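Hi R.,

As promised on Friday, here is the backbone we talked about, encoded as structure tokens. Could you run it through your design pipeline when you get a chance and send me back a sequence?
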């Protein structure tokens, strides 16, 4: 069942106008709070944004690749406190995939929008722009935004034949496990 979920999940960049039901948002919230983190420190925080104006503002947070947030029903901003953990980037990444897999299991589409190390059109870092928009304390680092909604596009799973099994090694780098 999990492999079917992985096969089906694709980055969705076009969404319908349908709102996400509150019960699904609650499930997404619980799922992300169950994300593992280094030493169980949980340095992350999540801001769920469904306000259309704010989603539009978030869609301009970086010079390219964020426009899809304007059409999303929900954006989940993932930020983390670097004073709490040295694994905050990894922890935020794990949380982001947990959100996306939970969304897929609920019949929702999603797309990860990288913000760390990206720039806003005005020359400021994109995370700084987002922090200002959402009143995020200065000690938190914005990592990414996950766009969510009901998919307005259908993408076929990547065929198994497109997977590069040559990147899987046994015991040592370069010792291919397959083929």
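Update: got your reply. Pasting your designed sequence below so it's all in one thread:
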């Amino acid at each position: 069942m999990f492999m079917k979920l992985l096969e089906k999940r694709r980055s969705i960049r076009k969404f319908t106008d349908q709102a996400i039901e509150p019960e699904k948002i609650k499930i997404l919230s619980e799922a992300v709070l169950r994300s593992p983190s280094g030493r169980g420190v949980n340095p992350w925080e999540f801001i769920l944004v469904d306000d259309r104006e704010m989603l539009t503002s978030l869609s301009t947070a970086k010079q390219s690749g964020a426009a899809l947030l304007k059409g999303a029903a929900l954006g989940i901003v993932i930020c983390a406190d670097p004073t709490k953990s040295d694994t905050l980037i990894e922890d935020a990444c794990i949380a982001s995939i947990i959100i996306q897999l939970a969304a897929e299991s609920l019949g929702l589409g999603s797309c990860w929008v990288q913000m760390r190390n990206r720039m806003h059109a005005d020359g400021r870092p994109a995370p700084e722009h987002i922090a200002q928009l959402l009143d995020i304390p200065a000690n938190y680092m914005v990592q990414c935004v996950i766009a969510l909604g009901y998919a307005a596009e259908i993408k076929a799973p990547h065929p198994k034949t497109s997977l590069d099994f040559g990147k899987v090694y046994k015991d040592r780098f370069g010792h291919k496990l397959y083929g």
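One thing I noticed while checking it: The mean pLDDT is 97.

Thanks again,
M.
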